[in-house]
Design brief:
Layout (H helix, E strand, L loop, with lengths): L12 E7 L8 E7 L17 H14 L2 E7 L1 H7 L1 H15 L6 E5 L10 E4 L7 H24 L5 H4 L5 H10 L10 H9 L3
Parallel strand pairs: 1-4, 4-5
Antiparallel strand pairs: 1-2, 2-3
Helix pairs in contact: 1-4, 2-3
């Protein structure tokens, strides 16, 4: 982990991160994690830089060793209603609220913090600087990827395991060919365009 000055004299610090702001389909998933200083976890890093195998192993270790962890989410309907930024903040609030131990301080990946009942700080590139945020990014990524695998089993023609719902060439081609699913985010431009194209 890169050098990061933790707030002094605070015991229970939660890290929060999100996965899934960019995809055209599915929920935005967040996680909040309070690590146990007596049970450090080796190899924590930004979830995007880890292999899938490594992520799965670390996610299991985080769930076993963390003092507390929780997932939060905002569904496609909420994203369409609120916009992706506000939906992400809502999902982060839900993750923190669901922790079985409430933290004294929260470190959030990125440049914005949700409205929380305890002090919080935004950390740009936090998933490569703060172990708690890295752990949260791993849990959120593993959970969302699993949802994409399940969606792929329901709708194999869209190839969700390949692109995880992001607007890749393959996803856009399948969307044009097979149309919009209930799980697609209707407010996102490529999805909205296809709905408009198909409206008589």
């Amino acid at each position: 982990m890169a050098d990061f000055e933790y707030p002094q004299g605070i015991e229970l610090i939660a890290g929060v991160d999100e996965v899934g702001r960019g995809p055209l389909v599915g929920a935005v998933v967040t996680a909040a994690v309070i690590l146990d200083p007596n049970h450090p976890i080796k190899g924590l890093a930004d979830s995007k830089k880890l292999s899938e195998k490594k992520r799965l192993l670390l996610a299991e270790e985080i769930r076993q060793k963390a003092l507390a962890w929780a997932l939060g989410r905002a569904e496609p309907e909420e994203i369409d209603q609120l916009n992706i930024l506000h939906a992400t903040m809502l999902a982060m609030q839900r993750a923190v609220k669901s922790l079985k131990i409430q933290p004294h301080f929260v470190l959030v990946d990125g440049n914005r913090i949700p409205d929380l009942p305890m002090p919080a700080q935004a950390v740009i590139k936090g998933d490569s600087k703060v172990a708690e945020i890295s752990a949260a990014s791993i849990l959120a990524k593993v959970a969302r990827d699993q949802e994409m695998v399940e969606l792929d089993q329901q709708f194999p023609q869209y190839e969700f395991t390949k692109h995880k719902g992001y607007p890749t060439k393959v996803h856009l081609a399948r969307l044009a060919e097979f149309g919009v699913l209930p799980q697609h985010r209707r407010s996102f431009a490529p999805v909205r365009q296809i709905i408009l194209n198909n409206t008589p």
